[in-house]
Amino acid sequence: MDSEIKEEIPVHEEFILCCGVETQVLKCGPWTDLFNDQTANRPKLLIFIITDTNAQEIKDVYGLRGQVEHKLAFLRTHVPKDMKLVLIGHSVGCYISLQILKQAPELPIIRSILLFPTIERMAETPNGRIMFPFLYRLRYIFYAFGYLLLKPCPETVKSWLIRMALQRMNFQCEFSLLNVLEPFCLVNSAYLGGQELMEMVKRDDEVIEEHLSKLIFYYGTGDPWCPEEYYQDIKNRFPEGDIRLCEKKFPHAFILHSSQEMAGMVADWLKDDLSKVEVVT
To answer: Would you place residue 4 in the very low, low, confident or very high pLDDT band (cuts 50, 70, 90)?
Structure first.
């Protein structure tokens, strides 16, 4: 992929109601309506990025299983049934991608890319061992901190804190991040994190084996959420699979400083799939 060529791609931000939950959707490209738009702007393939039946309300939507059901409901109600799909998951989003493949075999998914996949033994990882006491055993102290200190905090102060943090990380964002300091968001994130540590234990080899030809795994080196030994284990279990180890020393949170390079690599991996879609259509 020629990194010198830069194309201005329009990005639309929308909020929809999915499963009784207000859901932020970022649409990249000139399209806005997948169902009614029959012009050249309508994509032939949809790339669904997960950072994470019918649209009925889901019990425990902020839990791990609820998040899987939420993504399934979105794909089943807001995407045409004949629209080919590429799933790109990062971290726990890889677990959700595998669950989508398992629970929705009717979806026309042609490829699933799993970046820095957190899909097993999460509590045993270096970061998991650190976070487990905070997100599971001491989570109510975390909840109290959020509501007692952040709830009464003025939005101007929150904006300043976020701006200082982003500047310190040398990271720019086109969208507002003010909600990350909302107690409701922090509490739900901690609740979800605790469930992930407790429930994501055994790798689902059955679904991996069934869909192996569609999967690309990309593991990091020195990843504190997914040690390199996990890469060796799955590579030994599925020697014929497309399982890669990062040679560029990208961190688990690559979006902070390596998002362009990662996007270019993923685009290259998808060239063959995209060319086949063009030929068929």
So the answer is: very low
